Amino acid sequence: MPNLSPTKEPMPTQDPKARTQNFGEVALGYTPAQARQEAQRCLQCKNRPCMAGCPVRVDIPGFVARIAAGEDSRAFEVLYASNTLPAVCGRVCPQEIQCERRCVRGIQGEPVAIGRLERYAADALRAAPSPAPEEPAGGHAAARAKIAVVGAGPAGLTCAGDLARLGYAVTVFEAFHRPGGVLTYGIPAFRLPKDVVAYEIDKLRGLGVEIRTNVIVGKTLTAEELLADHAAVFLGTGAGLPNFMGIPGESLSGVFSANEYLTRVNLMRAYDEAYDTPVIRSRRVAVVGGGNVAMDAARCALRLGAENVSVVYRRSEAEMPARQEEIRHAREEGVSFVMLAAPVRVLGDERQWVRGLECVRMALGEPGQDGRRSVGEVPASNFVLEADTVIVAIGNRPNTLVEEGTAGLERDRRNCLIVDEQTLRASRDGVYAGGDIVTGAATVIQAMGAGKRAAASIDAYIRGK
Ligand code: FAD
Ligand code: SF4
Ligand code: SF4
Fold first, then answer.
1. Are 178 and 213 contacting, i.e. CB atoms less than 8 angstroms apart?
2. DSSP symbols for 200-258
3. Does the Cβ of 401 fall within 6 Å of ligand 1?
């Protein structure tokens, strides 16, 4: 008998006041009893509409049924068959616009908490005594070839995992000293603990994937050299180049890109006194942008002791691209939101240090062809937000480092690599690409979906040779 409650089992969380003093995880995860209750809300629909909302097509009713039956490790097996990073996706997927949006329980009430259940199944396995590492599947006869994967983010790691399962010898080349991409250097520990990421990456190593860190492809060695030594190359170098606003005063001391700020805090552990990484300790912070990156930067600034943190966004809350949960958590923690406002100038003091952010009020117009409402400035509505730090989180682009020393890779006007939509083959034979390097900044699960498709295409390419 399904559980007919119209609402999700609530997620236990750290108290908002307490959590602004630490970097511990905010959402604490379901207990086994809560997970069973929630799993019983699933109607096991025959046509499985929820699965169409998942870019890697997780068998959602399948794994949820196992949780409902108390078979947590079976639930994990079902999940892991299509998703190699379930503990990550359960935490950071924007479920409300993906799988949960299609859930029929959402028609009259809240959808099944698919993400929370995914996290539960993955965490239950991690908490259990260590399972034997998964052996590479062996694969077909052609699958002894060497494949190079550039970038150890979700796209590269997923591609590497799928190819290793097919029996290929996969080496991942990563510029940073730690693998994980944005999962490691961008998303803060209070949303995604770093031991969760490390555990899921270790499972990939168990599949036989070799990860070489501190290798910048384009500098340390070139993609050309990788091509000479490997049967195929996958490029998953993401979109780590920050956009700036292009307004006066942006070069003043105290203006940061969110990327730099978050990398210092997360990858280089600036929040931990045991590390020497310098990071600014601000009093009043203005964060510009409305996505997950802006929420993460604002919440890090609070945890580093800022008295006042404001998010400045040019549209209204309804248009904010950040996950709803992140906006709610930021608000609970005391972040203020200055909506319908756009920065026009950063103001400095006599030391050339930020003292404020001058903004203009914006008004929403009619929806355009893409369904998004236009915005326009309200004349003579300028105002100043007092701030000693401005963090810019208005999007990222791919960097072009990887092409240095390698000819024949085409990019579009946004710097994104051009690939065949179906196969993800780039403009150079034997080179495939996916994730943010192709789409521009998107989501973890979209990058993973691309990594999966590219792995299938690389396999077909090598078999065809
Ligand atoms: P990345 O994760 O960027 O990984 C690329 C890797 O390639 C990096 O490790 C980089 O160091 C490496 N690299 C780059 N150049 C080279 C080179 N020349 N040689 C070798 N290695 C190189 N998405 C969500 O779904 N939910 C969220 O909550 C969410 N929050 C986010 C918060 C932040 C702060 C940021 C920045 C992004 C967030 N995203 C979120 C977006 C998501 O993280 C990205 O879409 C996703 O990580 C893209 O994966 P990727 O593998 O394409 O690239
Ligand atoms: Fe939903 Fe993401 Fe899990 Fe797919 S991977 S089922 S989109 S939470
Ligand atoms: Fe279960 Fe919702 Fe999927 Fe139906 S749509 S199978 S209720 S998760």
1. yes
2. HHHHHHHTT-EEE-S--BTTTB-HHHHHHHSSEEEE-----EE-----TTTTSBTEEEH
3. yes
450 pLDDT tier (thresholds 50, 70, 90): very high
Distance 61 CA to ligand 1 centre (A): 29
Rounded to the nearest angstrom, the distance between the alpha carbon of 62 and the centre of ligand 3 is 10
CATH 3.50.50.60 domain range(s) in the chain: 141-240+397-464, 244-394
Residue 112: CB within 6 Å of ligand 3?
Answer: yes
In short, whether 295's Cβ falls inside 6 Å of ligand 1 is no
- Residue in 85, 279, 278, 353 with CA at minimum distance from that of residue 199: 85
Q: Say how far apart CA 252 and CA 348 lie, in whole Å.
A: 7
Q: Report the topology of domain 244-394.
A: FAD/NAD(P)-binding domain (3.50.50)
Confidence grade of residue 128 (pLDDT, cut at 50, 70, 90): confident
Between the CA of 181 and the centroid of ligand 1 the distance, in Å, is 5
245 lines ligand 3 (CB under 6 A): no
pLDDT in tens, 295-349: 999 999 999 999 999 999 999 998 999 999 999 999 999 999 999 999 999 999 9
Output the residue whose Cα is nearest ligand 2's atom 4.
54
Give me the residue label for tokens 């609530």: 10
Return mean pLDDT, the chain: 93
Q: Which pLDDT band holds residue 195 (cuts at 50, 70, 90)?
A: very high
For 370-392, write each residue's pLDDT tens digit.
777 889 999 999 999 999 999 99
Entry pTM: 0.93
In CATH terms, the superfamily for domain 141-240+397-464 is FAD/NAD(P)-binding domain (3.50.50.60)
16-127 — its CATH code?
A: 1.10.1060.10
